[in-house]
Structures are given as structure tokens and as C-alpha cells.
Amino acid sequence: MREILREDARPRVPAGRGIQRHRQRGARAPGHSHATYKLLIGKGIRNLVGQALPPAKRSAETIARCYEAMIADYGEHCLVKTRVYEGVTELVSRLRASGAKLAVFSNKSDELTRQIVASLFAPGDFDVVVGAQPGLPLKPDPAAALLIADRLGVAPSRIVFLGDSGLDMLTATAAGMIAVGAAWGFRTKDELVENGARAVLDQPLELLELLERPR
């Protein structure tokens, strides 16, 4: 979902608050730079919390405490400085006008994913919205992507999977979808290509041009 939304607040803000709350209860954990957090994001919030903590403090109990603190804080502040990337609103509008079916797929919790999408987009912009939920493996497992294809009623081979990380490209490929990289997101073009992107876009509206090309 990061290729759709821009979270201007440094990742250390939501993650750091959860870890800071645990620190105040006696544990000490260093902060991280914006660049470091960008590399940690993408595999789910619980994984982010675990990786942000020092190896010696990654006990199940410590991770659970920090995770719960972060979820509580992020649930209240997930829209702070979160904006739609320039060009995405127009892209969604034009795709909807063309009759395309659209979905959002995120490793964020399902509840938070739906909350963010509902707050920043119009009702009906997306046919399916799926976030992390019990019993559904996280990316790069293709299970959730295939579930979305089933709900859309579209064969995986006809779905363009637009993502901004190598993890997204691996997920798309594993699901038999068309992997397209969003270079305006959190990762580099090299990472996207190395993990299977069949095309990499610099701006959202370039997707319209890609879809018009003969296949």
C-alpha cells in the first residue's frame, strides 16, 4: 500500500513510540534513522518491532509489549502526515472510469488498512481491500493475492500487481500476476528489478500508458 500512500512522518515516530513506552518500563533500546526504518518496513508491524529492537532484547515478551504499544499508538495516529501520492487519485479515477477492478493489499493489519483507505479515498474506489489477518500468511506468500484475485473474479495472469518493494515483486510473481514496480515508493529500482519487476514506473499515471501497450 506504500505505493499509494505517502507517510511523511518518519517511521521512527509510530515504531519509536511503542518501543519508547517499553523503554520507560525498564528496557532500553536505541532509536533508528529514517533510512534504516525504510528498510525494516514491509513485512508486517510485528516484524518491524522485532527488527527495530536490539538482538538481545528480542524476547517474545518484549516484542509483544512493544507491538501492543505501537498498535495502540498507530491506531490513533495512522493518518498523521499520511497523504495520497501525487497522481494516485487521478489514476484511480481514470482506472475506475475505464471499468478496471481495483484492490488494495497490505501487510498492515486488516483493520488499519481499511481505516486508512476509507479515510483517504471515496467509497467504491476499490473493489477489495485486504490487510494482514489471522490465518492469512504475509507477503511474499501468494495466498492473500490469490484470495484477492478470487474476490475480484479475475484470473491472476490478468492482474497488474503494483508495488514498491522486492517483497511485492516476489509476491506478484508467486501469484502468477504481472509484477510492476513503483519507483516513487520506499525502495530502489534495482531492488524492484532484481526481485522480478517486469516494468518499473517513475510516476503513477505511467501505469495508464503501460496498460495501453499491446501485449
Structure description:
With 215 residues, the chain is an alpha/beta fold. The chain folds into two domains: 7-77, DNA polymerase, domain 1; 85-212, HAD superfamily/HAD-like (Rossmann fold, 3-Layer(aba) Sandwich). It is 46% helix and 14% strand. It is built from ten helices and seven strands. It has helices spanning 12-23, 34-40, 45-52, 60-77, 88-97, 110-120, 143-152, 166-174, 189-194, 206-212; strands spanning 5-7, 82-84, 103-109, 128-132, 160-163, 178-182, 199-201. The strands form three sheets. A three-stranded parallel sheet has the order 5-6-7. A two-stranded antiparallel sheet has the order 1-2. The chain has a two-stranded parallel sheet with strand order 3-4. Strand 6 (178-182), helix 9 and strand 7 (199-201) form a beta-alpha-beta unit. The longest helix has 18 residues, at 60-77. Residues 7-26 have low confidence and may be disordered.
**What class do helices, strands and sheet pairing give?**
alpha/beta
Topology order in helix (H) and strand (E) letters? EHHHHEHEHEHEHEHEH
Total number of strands? 7
Radius of gyration: 18 Å
Under CATH, the topology of the largest domain can be stated as Rossmann fold
Name the CATH superfamily assignment of the largest domain.
Answer: HAD superfamily/HAD-like
CATH architectural type of the largest domain:
3-Layer(aba) Sandwich
The neighbouring-strand order within the major sheet is 5-6-7
Whole-number tally of structural domains: 2
Share of helical residues: 40-55%
Distance between the termini: 26 Å
Unreliable spans are 7-26
Relative strand content = 5-15%
Biggest pleated-sheet summary? 3 strands, parallel
Output the CATH class name of the largest domain: Alpha Beta
**Overall residue-averaged pLDDT value:** 85
Tell me the overall shape: globular
Number of alpha- plus pi-helical segments: 10
